[in-house]
């Protein structure tokens, strides 16, 4: 369980997060949505200790994120950042293998090799395993980065905009795979998404943020409504049902 209690974050005069309190139970897929500057990525970065807490507390399975040793926390959570900086002369297989480092500290075992092989297969990267990252498209590189996070084999997978650079086919396939990972492997996935329909179609819960605060929280069938989307995004978005699933239509006039 991820427990967030009265978390605030400020840079100079800018309030990024304002007294956020949330509990995310173990298991399933939770989508963080909201307009640009809502605080979604900042909240994810605090959970994953990419930046330090200023106020409030965050625990993961009762472990305080600000005081738990890094090696222990690296076996608990894996993170996909928006701005991943990785060496271009790495191969896809080498990059994915870095996900095993918290477990093997550079001494690769057969279990590590098996996990890397599985990740390459699941993320449709087997044919790209020997390619250098600099030769990949943005979408191929993004899939490799998500595969590296998966390969860390943690209970919690935190993904900041994992659909960046992915076309429609691979966006759908990645969300289907994340759904499978949560259901079949018992992982807890928390992901920042900008497409409300991917959030509605594949998540168990949507947490909507605006101006550094949580403004809506609930299952997709309750949250994906014209009224709630107006509150979040500031304009009327028609919503229709397709096979019982609410679908937002922001492009309609």
Automatic annotation (TrEMBL):
Identify its membrane topology class. Peripheral membrane protein
Q: Which UniProt keywords apply?
A: ATP-binding, Cell membrane, Ion transport, Iron, Iron transport, Membrane, Nucleotide-binding, Transport
| Organism, scientific name | Neorhizobium huautlense
Q: What is this protein called?
A: Iron complex transport system ATP-binding protein
- What InterPro entries does the annotation carry? AAA+_ATPase, ABC_transporter-like_ATP-bd, ABC_transporter-like_CS, P-loop_NTPase, Siderophore_ABC-ATPase
Family per record: Belongs to the ABC transporter superfamily.
Q: Which SUPFAM superfamilies match?
A: P-loop containing nucleoside triphosphate hydrolases (SSF52540)
Q: Does the keyword Ion transport apply?
A: yes
Query: What region holds the ABC transporter domain?
Result: 2-236
Q: Where in the cell is it found?
A: Cell membrane
Q: Which GO terms describe its molecular function?
A: ATP binding
Top-rank taxon, per record: Bacteria
Primary localisation category: membrane
